[in-house]
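the two lines:
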Amino acid sequence: MAFLGISFLLWGIVILALIVVALILVFNGLILARNRMQNAWSQISVQLQKRIDLVPNLVETVKGYAKHEKDTFAMVTQARTAMMNAKGVAEKAKASDLFTGALKSLFAVAEAYPDLKANQNFLQLQEELTGVEEKIAYARQFYNDSVLDYNNAIQTLPNSILAGIFGFKNQEFFEATASAKTVPKVSF
Amino acid sequence: MTTLWNRSASNRNKSFVLFAGMIVFVMVLGYFFGIILGGMEFGMIGLTIAFFIAIIWALISYYYSDSIALAVSRAKPADEKQYLKLHNIVEGLSIAAGIPKPKVYIMEDKAINAFATGRDPKHAAVCVTTGALEKLDKWELEGVIAHELSHVRNRDILLMTLTAVMIGVIVLLSDWMIRMTFFRGGDREGGRLGLILLVVGIVLAILAPIIAMIIQMAISRKREFLADSDGALLTRYPDGLANALLKIQQDNRPVAAATSSTAHMYISNPLRPGFLSGLFSTHPPIAERVAALKNINVKAAEQEIKDNSGKK
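prediction for all of em together
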């Protein structure tokens, strides 16, 4: 009897240890997915900020050649301000798409000014902005992939139990709501 | 569960096995060298010396194999201003892959090709030929870079680069031994030694391509398919890479600086088709890869290649 008792105790400890190990693995997996997602978000933020920094310079350059396009300048400035003030994932996504649209109009305007198009500074800015727009698109792709991965991780069993206990919350995708979704992928 | 994110684990294990294999190989070599040079009792001394040499070799391989591979391929760092577009593509796709931006290198060569090297995503480099920059359009170049970055993220690069250095050293060793033998040819006292060195040299010379074949096959075709599909996942445009592969096939120009030891690192076989490269093919046929990317059958892809060469 005593032998059986010890054996039960041993098995109990082994099973408990296995459960603890499994919990740790699940928890670490969740943390990993969340960190990846947060890293992805910071990638987007970096690129959004880069674009915000580049645009005033661009507007100044275009103004030198196309003074009369006031409406376009106002639109770009407004879009930039909206971008800077946007809070939260969905709002930023929407502002970003509008900003992209406004910049597209600005470059469309530039088409009508041959002198501007020959300006070295303008060409440089155009190349840089095209690069930033592409990086935003890629950062967005990476972020949305990571969010999908993370949301899957916290919603599926058995992870969801642990995720509930430790307060892992669903994350929003970086995408505009249906109304703002008409802006296509850019190429200036 | 194997996902996009943890594919690298099995490659780390394989790299470790390769390291261990390298060390054992050098130790065996040292044992025989000891016996050849000093008689039976020197076997263990040779083995001990070889062990330390192997450790140093392994450390050098780990930390410098990327520099070696780049130097052997005569690659130069790509100037950020001059190759702004290339840098932009690499940086954008690195963001999409969730890895730091690797260093960017250029190879002066008319052939269309590219490879990636390094020991982990934090210490990685991608290298493209100037021919690729000239002849590929933006989408095709993105496809090629995405393929290379997938190698980086999947940690194929350490394994591939280690293999390149190892095969390179074995080829070099066998070459030396054969040369040493001929050099000692006139030396009457070295007759026995010379003969043994010749045998060892010949054995190594035979061994080198066989080891190359085994390892390159382990690295091999599945890995290329995987990098193709992961690359397509990054650009979300599989046709870009497929068209690039078709152009490579059509261009069909060998890379001058590529050798049999570095061939498996490239996106497409960089060697002139010959007896060896035909026998030990390091890359799956382009038609199969295009078929997988375009989701068509291999026959249709072969037809497309034929049509392409007709246009030329």
